[in-house]
Amino acid sequence: MSSNFAFRGYTRRVARAVVDAMVPRWPEFEADLTDDVLEQVEDFTRNYPPFVRFGVVAMLYGLEFSGPLVLDGLKPTSMLDREAAIARLEKVADHPIPQIRMMVMLPKIMVSFSAYSRPEVETFLGAPRRAWRANRKAFRDRLVQIDARRGADPATPEPLVDAGVRPEDYLRFEPTPA
Predict the structure, then answer these.
(1) Are the beta carbons of 116 and 24 closer than 8 angstroms?
(2) Which of 13, 88, 127, 139 is the most buried (most CB within 10 A)?
């Protein structure tokens, strides 16, 4: 289910501000993941059904104008610097009303999936999954070759029941007529 959906104009600005605030950062890690993660989040959203895409965009606008909800001012989130945007999103995540807290959940999940699956992040964190995937594929290919040499499948064993019981009677719960 793909479409030509894309964050455009003001919506892209809002999405970029939210992703920039949510993307993980470490002092020793120099790469800026914001643009790559934003593209991946956009791709996630593109593959959702239309009503979910609408919900994602509505959620972004909810986060954009969440200042009055968390008593953090009237300035939109996309106009804040990174630290202020992070602080605002943390206030939204700690809000006493669950529906407001949930506005942060889906974007955070999409950003986390996108960021932590990047090869440079995996390598930085000491979990080089790309090599694991290659090894796993090579092992699978070896198993397929071994299976191809095996020949025909063994015969299906006979059922271990009385000869008078038919296969369609196996799951009947009524007593078998005598």
Answers:
(1) yes
(2) 88
Among candidates 18, 17, 29, 44, which has minimal Cα distance to 114?
44
Residue found under tokens 């999936």: 113
3-state secondary structure of 66: coil
pLDDT reported for residue 111: 95
Q: Is 18 exposed, middle or buried (0-12, 13-18, 19+ CB in 10 A)?
A: buried
**Would you say 96 and 32 are in contact if contact means Cβ atoms under 8 Å apart?**
no
Decide: 24 and 31 in contact? Cβ < 8 Å: no
Decide if 5 contacts 46 (C-beta within 8 A).
yes
H or E element at residue 145? helix 129-150
For residue 118, CA distances in Å to 45, 91, 114, 142 come to: 18, 28, 7, 28
pLDDT at residue 45 greater than cutoff 70:
yes
Note whether 72 and 45 are within 8 A (CB). no
Q: Among 19, 37, 135, 119, which residue's Cα sits nearest to residue 77?
A: 19
